[in-house]
Amino acid sequence: MPKFFVSPDAVRGSFLTLDGENAAHAKVLRLRRGDSVVVCDGCGNDYRCTVSDSSPQQVCLVVNSTEPSGAEPPVACSVYMAYAKADKLEHVIQKATELGAYEIAAFPSSRCVLRLDAASAAKKRERWQKIAASAAAQSGRGRIPQVLVMPSFEDAVQRAAGCELALFPYENEHALSLRRAIGSAQAKTVSIMTGPEGGFSDEEVELAQRAGLQVCTLGPRILRCETAPLCALSAVLFAAGALD
Amino acid sequence: MPKFFVSPDAVRGSFLTLDGENAAHAKVLRLRRGDSVVVCDGCGNDYRCTVSDSSPQQVCLVVNSTEPSGAEPPVACSVYMAYAKADKLEHVIQKATELGAYEIAAFPSSRCVLRLDAASAAKKRERWQKIAASAAAQSGRGRIPQVLVMPSFEDAVQRAAGCELALFPYENEHALSLRRAIGSAQAKTVSIMTGPEGGFSDEEVELAQRAGLQVCTLGPRILRCETAPLCALSAVLFAAGALD
Question: In the Cβ-directed half-sphere of A109, how many Cα atoms lie within 13 Å?
Fold first, then answer.
């Protein structure tokens, strides 16, 4: 069933209206009077609705029932990914949203090829947030992960360190495994911080370690910068029962 | 360090020659006399070598030491993926190889958009095998996963059922979780079979179930056809300690 996200104040009693991009998307889907859709308020509430009237500009819906969205993981997992070339970051934003990431933060790192000034960062963030919104709707999420653009590596590390479990996968770490870092204690908030194409510098690894992040391995194979965060996210979600 | 794959018979005592595509790749990397490289025979042996001489057509190496490749997972995990549109299958072949898949099998399914006749299947397989070889080299694998093209859904199911643990993630299954399906027993061979964009048909699910595959859920979010196999593979490898 098609899923749409609206702002919480769009729900008025048992009536709802889709407009703007939602109406355009409804047109693509050729929604007609009597069709069923799910509307999510992005705060964990799903509304099962029936189309009562539709025009290219707006679609009117009647709410049949309301239920808490069952699609959110029991762990809030934040994915911190260094700026990467081309569409790799977009790929990770789409996939991490599908898998169930709580939020996605992009950050600069010393070996990043991509550099963003404030203006282009704001523009990119807007585009990335749209990708997350679309992936959230398609995968039936109960909320849209926020996409953040961190001003510096240090800011990213400090924020990531605020989670109960803060993971820092690094290809030159061989002692601490992801399994041991995750352990059996069920953290409610987890962060995963991964590097750019060229990897983290020694100074960055040290800084992360000092901030309390768990520098760990993802195994003996070298994963690309777009593969590592999704592999670690899948493992964390699996361990937390979020794939059950 | 750059890694090259050669056939086992290319190793003659303590000398080795790179030619053909390997020599072309060495040229791109600008390898020179004295540089260090790793050469893998694709059977789990890594040779640490030094370049003794190089020309555009061939690179001569001296073997300094031989060691078993430590990069292969303790579980042989086969990824069966239904034919998908455009570059999705190529994406999964690359990523599954990086992550540590044992082999990747493509198969037709009733809702597949892509259809392949025998001639184009052979051509595609050749291209897919090259993608696996390149990803294996880049990620430092000890062997190149074989890419198979199965003639039918039934053949794929029968072959997948031959593994100790045969998983069949399906979005309409809600009872059996991936965690429970994997359990605590460490299977040495695992297969993961996932569907095309439109999902499996009821008949296909029934056929898989009858053949002994474990129809299981990957959680309440709907994963795209290229996300599901990599998510399940990451989880299986994590549970088997292959990410340690």
Answer: 29
